[in-house]
Please model this.
Amino acid sequence: MAEIMIPIGPQHPALKEPVNFKVFAEGEIITRLELDLSYNHRGIEKAAESRDFTRVVPLLERICGICSHSHTTNFVKGVEEAMGVTPPPRAQYIRTLIAELERLHSHMLWLGVGGHEIGFNTLLMWTWRDREDIQDTLEEMTGNRVNYGTNKVGGVRRDLTQDQIDRAHKRFDTLEERFQGYAEMATQNPTIRERFQGVGKLTREQALALGTVGPTARASGVDSDIRRDDPYCAYPDVKFQVVTEESGDVFGRTLVRVREMMESLKICRQLLADLPEGPIAAKAPRTAPKADVISRYEAPRGELVHTILTDGSDHVARLDIRTPTLANWTSVAASLPGAHLADIPVVVAAIDPCLSCTSRVTVVDIHGRKPASYSWDELRAWGIDRHAGRRRRS
Amino acid sequence: MDALSTLFYALVFPGFLFLASLALLFQYVDRKVVARVQGRIGPPLLQPLADFVKLLGKEVISPEGSDSRVLSAAPLVALAAVFAAFLLMPVLGPSPLGFTGDLPVALYLLTLPTVIMLVVGFASKSAYTSLGGARAVTLLFIYEVPFYLALLAPAIAAGSWSMGAIVEWQSANGLLVLSQPLALAVALVGLQAKLERAPFDIAEAETELIAGPWTELTGRRLAVMRLSFDAALVAGCVLVALLFLGGGALPGDPHPYWLVAVAVVLLKAFLVALVLIVVRAAFGRLRVDQFSSFGWRVLAPAAVLQVFVVLVTVGGGWP
Amino acid sequence: MKVKRRVATEALRTLQVGPATIRYPFEKVAVPEGFRGRITVDSEHCIGCSKCAIVCATFCITMVPDEREVETAGGKTITRKKRPEVRLFDCIRCGLCEDACPTDPKAIYLSTKFAGSSASREEVVR
Model:
């Protein structure tokens, strides 16, 4: 059969956010694919440069709905390091609690989406129904289901009341039981096993070479978790396991995420039990001294890196955000050729893509088949050139 | 039967209008049960009718380069095929349009919608639809033979190709579900695949091919095509109820009053439909190659085995 | 088959417990205290310091002239010259304005109202 080009995206039922795969397939087998990201580019890194440290936090929160706390915590702890400010222990615990709750709801969401990608909508409905418990907890504690507005430089903005803590404990008990159920269901349902096992295989060497992070890498046997390797916030005080699998396929990633949910629940319980008393924020100065900070964080999707350059003023000089999804896209491109068409949504969903986080500009030269990247000056020159050309033509 | 009552039989009851209403009713039950299992409320009773009427009013768009006459005609052909198949079935008692050999004719007519899907797939000139149409026919090759074999088994046991005769035979010799459970199982799987329902909705895989061959059907065409598949669900369930569950006959009464017969057939068909609906809610979708391996490793041998068993018990051959 | 039992038990449990859907607006949801609802300006307590307009993340607060005698928390009575007007469609409910407001009780705060629609423009845009 001749090679046909099937456009997956930018609008497609399998994708929650726009991305463009041009898939070339012979029959049902994929021969190659071309990846086109950056449909969701909104100029956030540039916008962050003109806002001071108080105002920039809500902006960064809205990079993504599901990893919003990751972005703000990562940024705020980087700035605190630049300023030399230490948040009080209660603030660290609250930050970590919200972070783990975010991981929980993100993995639950993923489980539902994974079911949806193979047409198992029942699993989607059930997991998202129980995810509402986590969302209710977050709403009680922070006032919102996503974009929590918890962080500020120096600490957190809201405290937890005893009532909220008690209600959270009760919900955790129900959730633990439901998680067990979903773990069994997800790992033993015949269609899930058929569609997930052996699909999207990534060996450990490939994962390391391609820079894969998060549950995608851990499912290929890469034992790396920023919470343990480079601890931050309250993670030094809690005990938890880093979950790895050896299979490297989508089923392995399912197992990793499901077990990570159980671990997160354990962490949440420990945090609530040991919550220290005290203030919830330290006084932070208005400006940050000249500094060059790299802040790392284990987001639900993997390692999130913020590079923050401050210059003594009340805003950042440069902010660079490297999200885990951006690191994981190459693994998709590497594991899809040779797979079935039907595996595309499964493999793409398995890295848990968050395209709103991804869009930083990379150029792939499809004619020369060589990836390249533009420096800031080159990009600026190219942009001016292009728009000048437009004006000349119009 | 004179011309006027035949016309009434074909167009109103139990023909076109009756079958169309049943199709919408079965769609409602399908969506409601699945919704409740999933923890949702589900649509109200008239929703399928509302969807149908709404679709009739929508704009019909033909993709560039597609054959718009084919795309308009194809859904009507599918609808006609399913209705013709249903008219052959002994729903009120022996069908006035039935004849010896109406079972294979009904089966062939019920295969037409899938072939229409292939035609629509290629006529729509889109990557998604061609792939979907190709998949629909690939599946057809895999499940159709076991499906036919599974429905051949009751015919062999009853010694006739006529659906009415098979129903009659069961009143005297016991329901075929008891003596040929394997055939029933294979028939149900085949029916689920024919109707493109999970776990076999591979041709229209929403997350892979948008909607497969259905992608470029719009407005009236989509309304009619959907109606034909819903009617196929009814026809398929009635067929299974006739061949395996004794049709309109009651335990003590092989020829009840026609109203009772209709109610009984529908009840049995409804039970069959419930099984199909629950299976749809409980599984994800298979891949084409996985379905292929399932079909050749499990489905075909089971069907062949069942036919072999029946041949041996009946004593070798039919008249 | 074990898995069939798992899915079957869950399905039966769901059928028994009933749908998870909340039939809004016939059933109402209890909104927790501290919910980030619509921004409300309490004109009685505002002293017109403009801190909220300065700190707003989306620049959606403008100070409009509105003279009024206001009693501060300290017991004094002052004449304030302006008060904030919020463009509700631009507000992202971050609550920075509420944090910055120096009065007690807060003159600008996030209420628990979430229903955004109304028949009158005044209610929605102000």
